[in-house]
User: Which sequence fits this backbone?
């Protein structure tokens, strides 16, 4: 089946409509490149063709880019850097053939154009873009640990100049039509597809030359290139230092910088080979494999349907939220944005109103940034009904309880919640630590009770941890997953256990930092090692944000519940107690491990007296490993104990929920990244030094090996000749 449908009008204007079969969006498949290669030959050999309009035949967009599934298959099959470079050269040569075929080609971009889709448009001689609010263009390959491998680094730099191109390449920015036009990536904007094609045809009928500016003798890149360019120190030396300091574990940004620096000093064809070399190194590396796999897992999780024996998931039209604090306000705002009517209940009407005001402020910011109309913002805020009257919950399809993390307080509000639920409705708790089974005790129908743990700030955090209690029914799980999908969140299924998954693993992160502090490790070394490892927030700083009195209450609750010793956090408790005794509870009291001032924050000088420094300090790499490996090991234990079902859930939960460094692929993928044997050896070494919590439990390690083998068998293996 063809991927390009062609036609030729009486004026000699050829129309290529791209429609890649079997895909919701157009993607760059091997079949597409073969068809494009033939189509180029046809128009080049046909004297009747004056020019070509390239557009999409799908309503979903212009071109979404490379087939990410194909990339993962290649990586899973052991793709080498040389094979990756050869693959990029083969695809890139078709686009180079397009821009040098002698016939002018205009891209009529009638939808989303990302990654390879935009690279295809850049290889055309002009770009006309449909000015619709939902359309974006960009080169986001860096977010997958890659660089644009079909000429994107070379064409964008030559078109815009290096200074303007680098931020787009290094940050993977997506531009709306107005910004794309202002930046100079597209030459024309049109309001309808008819006008889009008419403008493209008009340009071709004017008889433009079918040649790119950089193929004209004497062309110079705007602003210059190479070490003598006026911007060279800013663009390359300073930026390289910044990238190594901030994103040292991610090789793609430095590779992009190198490809642009080297490639723009030589002819286009040589520059494309330089780009392909760096692309091959990235696609054949572990970091890109981890990021690509994580990207696909997140997409699949959002679309996941649970098997509930034919149960039709609940369509929530009216949602109840109990508790108008930061979490409840965020949940209400997100739900209203998804078109759901929300009843927001708190003990006081003033508190409930403040939560609605929070939504109004958030939506007003979207209006200011041009992302939403005032009318749409008002409609969303109006869907939230704040109240202090429990009767307002009447007729709600699903209720999310988001009150203080105390079992007695939560239990007290369930009476009002149950009275308001519509027949067949679902009661959920936003608890992050309290057992779903224990909270369900006394409920008339525990099968319709489940945990839905959102993360703060709800508007930005993509994860929802869905926690099934021992009596939660499959239908209730399906209902919770359906609501998460409607809220555009990524859900993972977790089974009831102390701390569930994310809180349990997160506690090992902050506890390990506190344990090292008690051992005499420099607090600055702890924080800097965490940053270098790729954590978005170092452990002592993040503990100040969540507060040390909360840590004390969680430990005390675990003691009251009679939990196993491994859940009592004994290696961190002395530090928690010492900080609480001094009233240093974190940001909310003006000081914890850090001191907070109007000018910023800095590590508290008193830490040196409270936890004297050891004479010998560990290597920064070992500090980083302890912070990474303790979470990976706890994730392995969760897998072995059945708290989580698979590697994908652990990886998504750790990266999206608690900030585990994305370059690893997630807490369990880290073990595969460094190698199981090397991981076990390091854990054994840390167990001898720090304690038995690092002991690599045989059952946990075996569970990791078995899951890694299962994942390997699920992925198709790349077969055949070199790429």
Assistant:
């Amino acid at each position: 089946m063809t991927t390009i449908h062609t036609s030729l009008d009486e004026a000699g204007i050829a129309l290529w409509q791209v429609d890649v079969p079997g895909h919701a969006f157009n993607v760059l498949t091997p079949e597409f490149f073969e068809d494009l290669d033939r189509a180029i030959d046809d128009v080049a050999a046909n004297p009747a063709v004056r020019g070509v309009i390239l557009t999409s035949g799908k309503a979903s967009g212009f071109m979404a880019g490379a087939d990410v599934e194909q990339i993962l298959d290649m990586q899973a099959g052991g793709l080498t850097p040389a094979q990756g470079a050869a693959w990029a050269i083969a695809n890139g040569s078709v686009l180079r053939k397009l821009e040098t075929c002698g016939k002018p080609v205009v891209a009529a971009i009638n939808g989303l154009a990302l990654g390879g889709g935009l690279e295809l448009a850049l290889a055309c001689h002009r770009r006309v873009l449909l000015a619709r609010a939902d359309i974006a263009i960009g080169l986001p390959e860096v977010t997958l640990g890659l660089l644009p491998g079909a000429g994107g680094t070379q064409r964008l730099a030559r078109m815009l100049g290096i200074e303007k191109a680098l931020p787009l390449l290094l940050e993977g920015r997506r531009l709306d039509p107005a910004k794309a036009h202002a930046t100079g990536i597209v030459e024309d904007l049109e309001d309808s597809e008819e006008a889009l094609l008419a403008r493209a045809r008009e340009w071709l009928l004017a008889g433009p030359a079918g040649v790119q500016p950089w193929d004209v003798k004497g062309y110079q890149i705007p602003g210059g290139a190479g070490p003598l360019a006026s911007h060279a120190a800013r663009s390359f030396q300073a930026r390289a230092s910044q990238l190594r300091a901030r994103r040292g574990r991610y090789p793609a940004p430095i590779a992009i910088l190198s490809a642009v620096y080297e490639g723009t000093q030589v002819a286009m064809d040589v520059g494309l080979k330089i780009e392909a070399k760096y692309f091959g190194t990235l696609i054949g590396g572990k970091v890109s494999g981890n990021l690509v796999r994580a990207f696909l897992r997140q997409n699949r999780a959002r679309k996941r349907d649970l098997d509930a024996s034919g149960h039709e998931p609940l369509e929530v039209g009216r949602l109840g939220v109990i508790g108008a604090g930061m979490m409840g306000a965020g949940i209400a705002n997100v739900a209203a944005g998804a078109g759901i009517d929300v009843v927001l209940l708190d003990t006081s009407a003033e508190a409930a109103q403040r939560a609605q005001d929070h939504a109004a402020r958030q939506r007003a910011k979207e209006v200011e940034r041009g992302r939403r109309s005032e009318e749409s913002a008002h409609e969303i805020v109006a869907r939230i009904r704040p109240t202090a009257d429990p009767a307002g919950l009447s007729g709600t399809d699903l209720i999310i309880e988001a009150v203080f993390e105390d079992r007695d307080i939560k239990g007290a509000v369930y009476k009002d919640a149950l009275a308001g639920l519509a027949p067949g409705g679902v009661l959920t708790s936003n608890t992050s630590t309290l057992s779903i089974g224990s909270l369900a005790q006394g409920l008339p129908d525990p099968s319709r009770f489940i945990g839905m743990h959102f993360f703060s700030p709800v508007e930005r955090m993509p994860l929802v941890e869905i926690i099934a209690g021992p009596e939660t029914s499959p239908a209730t799980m399906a209902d919770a997953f359906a609501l998460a999908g409607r809220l555009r969140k990524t859900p993972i299924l977790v089974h009831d256990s102390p701390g569930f998954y994310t809180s349990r693993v997160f506690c090992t992160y902050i506890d390990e930092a506190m344990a090292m502090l008690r051992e005499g490790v420099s607090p600055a070394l702890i924080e800097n090692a965490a940053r270098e490892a790729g954590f978005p927030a170092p452990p002592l700083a993040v503990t100040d944000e969540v507060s040390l009195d909360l840590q004390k209450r969680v430990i005390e609750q675990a003691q009251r519940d009679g939990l196993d010793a491994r859940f009592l956090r004994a290696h961190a408790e002395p530090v928690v107690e010492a900080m609480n005794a001094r009233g240093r509870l974190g940001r909310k009291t003006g000081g914890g491990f850090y001191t907070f001032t109007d000018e910023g924050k800095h590590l508290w000088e008193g830490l040196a007296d409270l936890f004297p420094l050891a004479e010998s300090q560990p290597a920064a790499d070992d500090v980083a490993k302890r912070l990474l490996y303790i979470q990976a090991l706890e994730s392995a234990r969760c897998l072995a104990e059945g708290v989580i079902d698979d590697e994908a859930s652990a990886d998504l939960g750790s990266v999206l929920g608690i900030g585990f460094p994305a370059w690893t692929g997630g807490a369990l993928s880290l073990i595969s990244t460094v190698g199981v044997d090397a991981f076990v050896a390091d854990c054994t070494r840390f167990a001898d030094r720090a304690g038995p919590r690092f002991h690599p439990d045989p059952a946990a390690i075996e569970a990791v090996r078995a899951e890694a083998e299962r994942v390997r068998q699920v992925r198709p293996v790349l077969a055949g000749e070199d790429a």
About this structure: The longest helix spans residues 620-641. Confidence is low (pLDDT under 50) at residues 716-723.
